[in-house]
Amino acid sequence: MDRNVVGMILGGLVNVAIALLLAPFFQGVLRRVTARIQSRQGPPLMQPYFDIFKLLGKEDIESGETPGMQRVATYLLLATVLAAVCLIPLGFPAPFSGSGDVILLVYLITFSGICTLLAGAAAGSTYSLVGTSREMMMMIALDPIFAITLVIGALHVKSLRLDAVLNGSVYSSGFPAAGLIMLVVMLLAFQAYVGRVPFDISEAETEIMEGPLIEYSGPKLAMFKYAQAVKLVVYAALFVALFVPWGNTFPLPLAFIFFWVKVLVLVLLSTFLAATHARYRIDQALKYYATFLAVSLGAVVLASFGH
Fold this sequence. Notes:
By secondary structure, the chain is mostly helical. It has one domain (about 5-305). The protein is about 70% helix and about 0% strand. The protein is built from eleven helices and no strands. It has helices spanning about 5-35, 45-55, 65-85, 100-125, 125-155, 160-165, 175-195, 205-210, 220-245, 250-275, 280-305.
């Protein structure tokens, strides 16, 4: 086997291992910091690891209408998210970025949302269907914004290769208007992408009791929770790669540490917003999403003219 292929496979495994190891830790940071802001002690930082192991050890009860589809959706969601992890830099160059492009990354991110829709539809309960419909509306509004951000980067570097786009390409030379606009849009929309308050509408626990996941328990619920935790890492890493690329040229240990410090700062900002804001209604959220989408379309027009 070619050495480059072996290197890519090993690099992909390292990326997956890093994401799986750190994703529950960031969830622990979210819980602990949220509790402190709300004057509570909160759970230990390691609690998400304990929760996942506890769920994996429970009986796999299947109470949905189509258990086969529930199993497929669960495995596909985690597999899709981990595939996306192999395409993004996590403090060092992404192992598969030279073999993938912007279109593939958009497909993977979108397909992870489709897996959640399939899971909710397969459960078949009233609450899961309500959560699924909300998730669908959010996908229709949000996924084009993410795609537009990558397209703007591709327009600036005149390439669809991920290794070129995921390197601050939205700024190109200097700080073009399109890049600055998308920085603000993606920062405001970050909460929605990671499903945090005030945009955790499809899984509003106090309203529709976990939404699409209401009929899930045991190992399948553990994999869903794990995939959602990894998605936080994926979106945070993509945001840093696109909008805060400075420090990537440092020597490897320093670049790796600096990258995760930037991710941690973004997670802490997300936590602060979640702890200090109430959940929006679905109609309020859709108005925000429509505004973000309209501004993003204006940005891609500017990018097409080199701005």
